[in-house]
Design brief:
Enolase-like, domain 1; TIM Barrel; seven-stranded parallel beta sheet; 12 strands
Length: 363
């Protein structure tokens, strides 16, 4: 972004907002991947067509019935026409991208909104003959990444097995309530844990929520002295045990806008950015700009992408935070038995010549 004091300063969003866009139709493609015998991930490729080109992205809504219904009965959205990136986004604000889909109470609608906006951005860039990196003036750089595997009942075995084949990989771990000091010491001894995700900001009924427990928080904070501590649930008791470690607290779930950052109960040195959680291109880029202006470190996160969305997250990381512990490992790292010949960190930049595409989605 240009210097804020300059009369010609433009935000990152403004660099993209007026790109012209023609949308003639939309198509959907179901994706699925079995990560374990009892765990299959479903997502949907959103493809916008116009002027003989297409723009792609991925709906990563983490609710299987919504994914299956999306492909069977896609909503008839009034998106055909000539737009700019900004006017298309404003049109999306007036429509329900989940029309006809019954979502759990309080379920956020940001995921599918991001799929449409990022597909539109890809199409606009391709129609203009420009890459996202060129449009933003940010050359892609090699992307550091961490892996956040399913740990099951034997987390130490999972981590050791992965390190055996990929000794350079580092991890973002989701702890369990029964993690004792011995297990934590053994995991810490690998010197491969970069982030501990406390998942304390989810509502208690969420399947992945972890109840804020001061004893567990203390064991984790002391046992992993160099790891970021993401999304703690704050109670008087957990605040007490985390007070000596406040400079390592980071946030994910509560952050959608710059204003959200300013209202956090503990101002962070770093935050986790997940594009699908922000929902709109404007929010995402405004948060990037805010963090740059306030010297807040950023690392990228994934939402279970199994298609072009993962590459797009890697693309964003390559421009905004390539050296951070980005939770954007290649998809196969999340397999129950990952291959032994996986790419190593950092990933070589693979941005397409035009569009918002990365790697094998760059054609």
């Amino acid at each position: 972004m240009a210097d804020a004091g300059s009369p010609t300063a433009r935000t990152s969003y403004e660099l993209l907002a007026e790109l012209p866009l023609v949308v003639e139709s939309c198509s959907l493609e179901p994706l699925s991947r079995a990560f374990a015998p009892a765990v299959t991930r479903y997502t949907t490729v959103v493809r916008l067509h116009g002027a003989g080109l297409d723009g792609i992205s991925e709906d990563v809504t983490p609710f299987e019935p919504a994914q299956l219904q999306f492909v069977r009965s896609p909503p008839e959205l009034p998106l055909v026409g000539a737009w700019t990136v900004d006017s298309f986004a404003r049109r999306l604000s007036d429509v329900d991208v989940y029309h006809g889909t019954e979502l759990p109470p309080g379920f956020p609608k940001t995921f599918r909104r991001w799929a449409y906006e990022s597909a539109a951005l890809d199409l606009a860039l391709r129609q203009t003959g420009m890459s996202l990196a060129q449009a933003l003036g940010r050359p892609p750089r090699p992307v550091s990444f961490v892996n956040s595997p399913m740990l099951g009942d034997h987390p130490l075995n999972v981590i050791r097995e992965r390190l055996q084949h990929h000794p350079e990989v580092r991890f973002k771990l989701d702890p369990a309530p029964d993690w004792n000091r011995t297990l934590i010491e053994d995991l810490a001894a690998t010197e491969a844990v970069a982030i501990i995700d406390l998942k304390g900001q989810y509502p208690p009924q969420a399947p992945i929520s972890l109840t804020p427990e001061p004893g567990l928080y203390e064991r984790l904070a002391v046992g992993f002295p160099d790891a970021w501590l993401e999304d703690p649930g704050l109670t008087p008791a957990t605040r007490d045990v985390l007070r000596p470690h406040q400079d390592r607290i980071t946030w994910d779930l509560p952050v959608r806008t710059p204003q959200d950052i300013e209202q956090l109960p503990i101002l962070p040195r770093a935050i986790n950015i997940k594009p699908a959680r922000h929902g709109t291109l404007r929010r995402l880029l405004d948060v990037y700009d805010h963090c740059a202006d306030h010297a807040i470190l950023v690392y990228g996160g994934g939402m279970g992408e199994i298609g072009p969305g993962r590459g797009q997250n890697q693309y964003l990381a390559s421009m905004f935070h390539p050296d951070a512990p980005n939770d954007v490992a290649p998809v196969a790292y999340n397999d129950f038995n990952p291959p032994t010949d996986l790419p190593v960190s950092p990933l070589t930049p693979r941005a397409a010549a035009i569009g918002f595409r990365w790697g094998e989605d760059s054609t």
